[in-house]
Amino acid sequence: MSPTRAPVPPPPARTARQLREATSSARRRHRPDADLNPLRQGLRLERVPDPCSFVLFGATGDLAHRKVIPAIYQLWRTNLLPAEFSIVAVARRPYTDEAFGAEVRASVEANSRVQPVDEAAWAELAKRITYQQLDFGDDAGFDRLSERLDALDAERGTAGNRLFYLATQPSQVTEIVRQLGRVGLDHEMRGSGWRRVVVEKPFGRDYESARRLNHEVAKVFRESQVYRIDHYLGKETVRNLLVFRFGNGIFEPVWNRSYVDHVQITVAESLGVESRGAFYEETGASRDILQNHLLQLMTLVAMEPPSSFHADALRDQKLQVLRAIATPDVEHVRHDVVRGQYGSGWAQGAAAPGYREEPEVDPESETETYVAGRFTIEDWRWSGVPFYLRAGKRLPERTTEIAIQFKEVPLPLFRESTGDPAPNVLAMRIQPDEGIMLRFAAKVPGLGLDVRTVNMDFDYGTSFSVDSPDAYETLILDALLGDASLFTRADEVEAAWAVVTPIIEGWAAMPAPRFPNYAAGTWGPEAADELMERDGRRWRRI
Ligand code: BG6
Q: Cα separation of 481 and 460, whole Å?
């Protein structure tokens, strides 16, 4: 008799990114033993970007150092970039290649999500980085940049493919794009390679300026060449929202006005404005978070299923939602939108200054560091379902969450045993502690009929035990691959501004509340609670 054997457990599920890492690294290293046939491996073969030059404008700035360069390093380290790759770092300050290289090395050390830095991988990448000093108004400088890119094609085999990443001040975008057009760096002629431009947020300051900016960019680049970044769309959990909704059959039937009571979306930050006081004075929470991150999350929750995951199929559906959001009028702004500004208080156990005491902030500033609002979508699916959105700095915790609260049962049979009604909630934790929680009623064990609410929890960390990539890794790789699905299209950006601009204008026309109106380390102004109470609801305690 043969000995009995325990069943062999199936291999752990692998994420698409793991699969991509596995295949592409095998391909790049040309391991003779690597079986690259995706069918034999049970893998979907993912593409590695074409050979290309990555031209980073604003290369000495904070964003480049904290996010962009560490993300490129991480992609390089995991063999997700082609060997024929070069980075041309562009900024106004004078640097030698060596001095710039030393500075970015320090940034990678400080900001890479995987430590310690892989010296061999870094050394290879560093060879591919050069620096070019450039004043964005200087024609001759752009001519030199163009020549240099041609030279790199010959030296590094970058094949004429160029990605221009604008990590600059928003006010510099138009000039850089104009110059790129002037020297013909936008042209995608037959055989000349592809040309793409990535533009960071904020994209405009209001509806009109966003339209003007789109118009200026469109004079040079076709829309299919333009990649507008909203880094929330690159977050792993945000991408999973699409899988959750459209990869499962059981949620879609209840995802509508018949079953959903309301939706709450929270982007809470515990930090203040840090060193970005000057930027924030011009921005405020409505431009910084509501116009982009919050509205993007709302579209992903509310959109109709796309017919495919092709970039335009997805973005068409998101656009429909943005256009269906009721445009706020003065009354709506007065009653349904709340602004706040933090005063001094506490943050992580230490005393924290008020916003007006932060560096580079006007001591009488009326800029909002908190915004909350009630929005409705006028379509068949969502008519009558309020979406409550809120975002703020110096709140008690850093947490981003989408919560779908369902309607109560039609006949509350267990009201006596439960006390307060406790409707079902589906909460998607975008960060930190990424996961999904479903709250439902359960009978407490015992002879009586006590009913309590319990949580059923899915936790990313426990289920997959792999680190998620940073949003910038995902987005940079997608831009290099020419996949625009996680980038916002011109019409989407304008539609989002059409929602937020009346709020900003409405506020400008009415007296500001007495700021500060919430203390650092608390959940925002009282008016935000009153907004919910008027509707007989409460913000979730997170
Ligand atoms: C940025 C805002 O877009 O998002 C910042 O400009 C904010 O003010 C940041 O702090 C929040 O991003 P994350 O990924 O830390 O939630």
A: 27
Number of domains in the chain: 2
Same domain (yes/no): 60, 189: yes
pLDDT tens-place string over residues 245-283: 999 999 999 999 999 999 999 999 999 999 899 999 999
CB of 434 closer than 6 A to ligand 1?
no
Q: Are residues 64 and 141 in the same domain?
A: yes
**Residues 393 and 522 placed together within one structural domain of the fold:** yes
Same domain? 24 vs 111: yes
pLDDT of residue 32: 30
Give the per-residue pLDDT at 29. 34
Q: Take atom 8 of ligand 1 and give the residue whose Cα is closest.
A: 288
Instruction: Summarize pLDDT for 408-467 with one digit per residue, the tens.
Output: 988 888 777 666 668 999 999 999 989 999 999 988 899 888 888 999 999 988 898 888
Residue 285 belongs to domain spanning: 233-407+485-533
Q: Is residue 432 situated within a structural domain? A: no
Pairing of strands 387-392, 370-375: antiparallel
Ligand 1 neighbourhood includes 269 CB (under 6 angstroms): yes
Q: Find the 293 Cα to ligand 1 centroid distance in Å.
A: 9
238 and 327 both lie in a single domain: yes
190 within domain boundaries:
yes
Q: For residue 456, tell me if it sits in a domain.
A: no
Which residue's alpha carbon is at the smallest distance from atom 4 of ligand 1?
A: 289
**With 60 as the cut, is the pLDDT of residue 156 above it?**
yes
In this structure, what CATH number is given to the domain that contains residue 76? 3.40.50.720
Ligand 1 within 6 A of 230 CB?
no
Residues 358-372 pLDDT 10s: 999 999 999 999 999
Half-sphere exposure of 541 (CA within 13 A, CB side): 0
Please state the atom number of ligand 1 nearest to the C-alpha of residue 280.
8
Cβ contact 235:430 at 8 Å: yes
The Cα diameter of the chain in Å comes to 88
Residue of 187, 293, 310, 332 marked active site: 293
Determine the Cα angle at 340 with ends 335 and 341, to 5°. 165
293: annotated active-site residue: yes
Report the CATH number at residue 294. Answer: 3.30.360.10
Residue 478: how many other CB atoms lie within 10 Å: 19
Does the pLDDT of residue 37 top 80, yes or no? no
- From ligand 1's centre to the CA of 268, what distance in Å? 10
- Rounded-to-integer distance, Cα 297 and Cα 388, Å: 12
- pLDDT, tens digit (0-9, with 9 covering 90-100), for 191-238: 789 999 999 999 999 999 999 999 999 999 999 999 999 999 999 999
